[in-house]
Design goal:
Protein name: Alanine--tRNA ligase
Subcellular location: Cytoplasm
Number of helices: 24
CATH architecture of the largest domain: 2-Layer Sandwich
CATH class of the largest domain: Alpha Beta
Radius of gyration: 34 Å
Family: Belongs to the class-II aminoacyl-tRNA synthetase family.
Cofactor: Zn(2+)
Number of domains: 5
Pfam families: DHHA1, tRNA-synt_2c, tRNA_SAD
Oligomer: single chain
Largest sheet: 9 strands, mixed
CATH topology of the largest domain: BirA Bifunctional Protein, domain 2
Strand content: 15-25%
Structural class: alpha+beta
CATH superfamily of the largest domain: Bira Bifunctional Protein, Domain 2
Length: about 900
């Protein structure tokens, strides 16, 4: 066996399949593009859906990649097992209707065993096949696999529901008896069994069936090959590692973490080893996720990043690391992965800043979590129980980042157990909610053989002209090709067309189709790319059209020109955002319509009004500078040398178009643009907002729409000036500031009067002491403005130590109810909790609430329930005595 680094293993895989005619694809970003079914890219095939379901036919039907992926469904296993990871790389080779079993099997065996490539010992390789797939079994034997090295397994059938499916072959490497965790005669000690000796390194799926919506199977029109080799696993084989973590992908991270610890070293203590592994695993996922545009937030994929950071920090605490340290590991990740992902080191400072900010934020949250933990332990003991309930334990995990094992350790220190079943129930409920929130609208569909097989040549000429003649080549109606259509809706492909097909955020052109006499025979309402790349027109036919005849195709020029202005404006906006916010502000999507543009981009935190003004000013300066906009058609390497910006989510061919606005903006783009920035006229941002985890959205208008927007704003200002009786609109801000100052003064006076009223009422109610069991209670309805005054009364009550319990209620001006309960410290220690009391009485006023053991509050809608709530409060206190 050769001695190879992880970088060499990855590159050798890609080089091998490149030698077999495959295009090498760059790893797609972890954040899925236009796929709501996925939270993250979770496999190599996840980026191939459009090819395998036939919606797009690739230029080369042979593809290979090393795709970074994230899976967090079994995050609790990370560190406890040899091969569980949140981030991993999947080496894969794919055939989209090209080669099939014979080539896939022969090449797999060649790569694995040839002295020119991996040079693994054939005696150590074992194969599993689907019992009904005897063809695969025979081919494995033909390439040299011994019969006793091939096992049949019923579960060797890859099927994820509707769409392509088929049998598969798994390849196992025999690591030797010394690596086994089972006796050699154990029933599971065989290739494919649950053991550590035989390690699965590669899975080859022979995708040959369509799993139809009615759960039947039919042969695929075009058979596919989909393979997956986990890089981390195969590296452990070449580097003779007991687990994936003892390889060059993880050991530098583990060694660096040990430098931060209180003297702990990897390999000395199994408990500490788990923490070292979790940290090394999580920082890889964190680094790549942030580098690909995601940011820590409270939902979606942003929540996953936040959770990973917090788990890693907590495991750092277990290693004695009290200060922020994760951010220092980011450049280590970059150095390990530099050969394949140089962009990580390029963004290392930005990624480290995001991680450091989140670590600091968590250290503040951690204090609240520890307080909740202490309260939970005290409450459980006070109730005479020996087990922490699952729901609050899950809250510690979910909200504060406490791993279950950490809570179990704290509980054990107090001789308590944890309701793990209750915790798992809450965990499953959360997973179910997350799964339900993801649409399956764009999951892999059934291949459409009709469209896939249409290979009629069609040329787009819209860069040169918006009116041309073209021969009608194909008419598709209800998934059938017909020769003539008298009227109605159809899809059509012409020999050439000036109509732009929707792509890159730019909407499709619309227009009309005329016959040779100049009569309009159809209206073009939409244009999309067919699987083989042709522009496919959706048309409403008004007069009969016949395949093979020539027609005049005319684009709606006015609409097209408005789209061009907005598209060029997005390029200027993209660069302006980078100038103002930094190079991390990557485009995350766009929409170019005739009347407005929408631009999504990654950014940590909000964009300030000052920054938006600066961005808007830069774009307008470039418009007014009369900059020529030029398009260069060149090869992709030359385009990159020109400094053109490419979108990670786009796949580019050998020849690309680069659109340049002078030396200011230069991007890969196949869309339509103005000849000079001055044609845009004016640019105005109308909104900026957050739309997801670390993603912001700007909506803007140009030209006439920008002028109309500004005119509307001016009319509003003039109307305001008239209402305020100000002769000049420019004085409105000063007048508004003066009015706000007057309002503030009045509010302060009102607050002062309300405080005095509250103090006067306090003097009246402190003497109304009542007895409830063994405790003293003040339960009163007071006339104050709201919760603020109730809290002031509670502060006075506490400082004067008036009673054991305070229950206050007030009716607000809008007829709603505020309730406040406070409990003296001595009563809290005895087990009386304000939160329990407020939950008992709030329903009587039609509301709910909660709070701390010493103070809680609630709101409600039924003011007539106040007397009953106060009475019930007294009774509840009496019952607790």
């Amino acid at each position: 066996m050769k001695k190879l680094s992880s970088a060499q293993i990855r590159q050798m895989y890609l080089d091998f399949f490149k030698s077999k005619g495959h295009d090498v694809l760059k790893s797609a970003p972890l954040v899925p593009q236009d796929d709501p079914t996925l939270l993250w890219i979770n496999s190599g095939v996840a980026t191939m859906k459009k090819y395998f379901d036939g919606s797009v036919v690739p230029k080369n039907r042979r593809l290979t990649s090393s795709q970074k992926s994230i899976r967090t469904n079994d995050i609790e296993n990370v560190g406890h097992t040899a091969r569980h990871h949140t981030l991993f790389e999947m080496l894969g080779n794919f055939s989209v209707g090209d080669y099939f079993k014979e080539e896939a099997i022969a090449w797999a065996w060649e790569l694995l065993t040839s002295p020119d490539w991996y040079a693994l010992d054939p005696e150590k390789l074992f194969i599993t096949v689907y019992p009904k797939d005897q063809d695969a079994k025979k081919i494995w034997q033909q390439v040299g696999v011994k019969e006793d090295h091939i096992y049949e397994a019923e579960d060797n059938f890859w099927d994820i529901g509707q769409g392509p499916s088929g049998p598969d072959s798994e390849i196992f490497y025999d690591r030797g008896a010394a690596m086994n965790n089972l006796p050699e005669d154990d029933p599971e000690s065989y290739p494919g069994g649950e053991n550590e000796r035989y390690l699965e390194i590669w899975n080859i799926v022979f995708s040959e069936f369509n799993h139809k919506p009615d759960n039947t199977y039919e042969p695929l029109p075009h058979k596919n090959i989909d393979t997956g080799m986990g890089l981390e696993r195969v590296v452990s084989v070449f580097q003779h590692a007991k687990t994936n973590f003892e390889t060059d992908l993880f050991l530098p991270l583990i060694a660096k973490t040990a430098e931060f610890s209180d003297g702990k070293q990897y390999g000395q203590d199994p408990v500490s080893d788990v923490s070292f592994k979790v940290i090394a695993d999580h920082i890889r996922a964190i680094t790549f996720a942030i580098g690909d545009g995601a940011l820590p937030t409270n939902d979606g994929r942003g929540y996953v990043i936040r959770r990973l950071i917090r788990r890693a920090v907590m495991h750092g605490r277990k290693l004695g690391i009290e200060d922020a340290f994760l951010y220092k590991l980011v450049p280590v990740v970059g150095q390990i992965m530099e050969a394949a992902y140089p962009e990580v080191l390029e963004q290392a400072d930005y990624i480290a800043k995001v991680v450091r900010d989140e670590e600091d934020r968590f250290n503040v949250t951690l204090k609240d979590g520890m307080e909740l933990m202490d309260n939970l332990v005290q409450e459980t003991k006070a109730q005479g129980k020996d087990t922490l309930p699952g729901k609050p334990v899950f809250k510690l995990y979910d909200t504060y980042g406490f791993p279950l094992e950490l809570t179990q350790e704290y509980a054990a220190d107090s001789n308590l157990k944890v309701d793990q079943a209750g915790f798992e129930k809450e965990m499953q409920a959360q997973k179910d909610r997350a799964r339900a929130a993801r649409s399956d609208a764009k999951s892999m569909g059934v291949q459409d053989a009709l469209l896939t097989d249409i290979k009629t040549p069609s040329e787009y000429v819209g860069y040169e002209t918006l009116s041309t003649t073209g021969v009608l080549k194909d008419i598709i109606v209800k998934d059938q090709i017909i020769n003539k259509i008298p009227s109605g809706r159809a899809r059509m492909i012409f020999s050439q067309t000036p109509f732009y097909a929707e792509m890159g955020g730019q909407v499709a052109d619309t227009g009309v189709i005329k016959d040779q006499a100049g009569n309009v025979v159809a209206e073009v309402t939409d244009v999309q790319h067919a699987p083989n790349g042709q522009n496919m027109h959706t048309v409403e036919v008004q007069a009969a059209m016949v395949s093979g005849q020539e027609y005049q195709l005319e684009v709606n020029i006015k609409r097209h020109n408005k789209v061009k202005k907005n598209h060029t404006a997005t390029h200027l906006l993209d660069q302006a955002l980078r100038d103002v916010l930094g190079s991390h502000a990557h485009q995350a999507g766009s929409l170019v319509e005739p009347t407005y543009l929408r631009f999504d981009f990654t950014n940590m935190g909000n964009v300030t009004p000052e920054q938006l003004t600066q961005v808007e000013q830069i774009v307008n300066e470039k418009i007014w500078a009369n900059i020529a906009v030029n398009t260069t058609v060149t090869d992709i390497d030359s385009a990159k040398k020109m400094g053109a910006i490419a979108l990670f989510s786009e796949k580019y061919g050998d020849v690309v178009r680069v659109v340049s606005a002078g030396d200011y903006s230069r991007e890969f783009c196949g869309g339509n643009h103005v000849d000079n920035t001055s044609e845009i006229g004016l640019f105005k941002i109308i909104s900026e907002s957050g739309i997801g985890a670390g993603t912001r959205r700007i909506e803007a208008v140009t030209a006439r729409e920008a002028f109309e927007y500004l005119e509307d704003q001016n009319q509003l200002l003039q109307t305001t000036a008239t209402e305020l009786k100000i002769p000049k609109a420019k004085n409105v801000p000063d007048k508004v500031a003066s009015l706000l100052d007057n309002v503030k003064q009045l509010e302060n006076k009102l607050q002062s009067l309300e405080d005095k009223l509250a103090s006067q009422q306090a003097a009246n109610i402190w003497g109304n002491l009542q007895t409830a069991g063994s405790r003293t209670v003040i339960a009163e309805e007071v006339k104050v403005s709201g919760m603020n005054q109730l809290r002031q009364l509670a502060d006075q009550w506490k400082s004067k130590a008036v009673s054991d319990v305070l229950i206050l209620a007030t009716q607000t001006e809008d007829g709603k109810v505020n309730l406040l309960v406070a409990v003296a410290d001595s009563s809290v220690k005895a087990g009386l909790k304000a939160g329990d009391l407020i939950k008992n009485i709030a329903p009587l006023v039609g509301g709910g609430g909660g709070g701390r053991p010493d103070m809680a509050q609630a709101g409600g809608k039924k003011a007539d329930g106040i007397p009953a709530a106060l009475k019930q409060g007294l009774q509840w206190v009496a019952d607790q005595a």
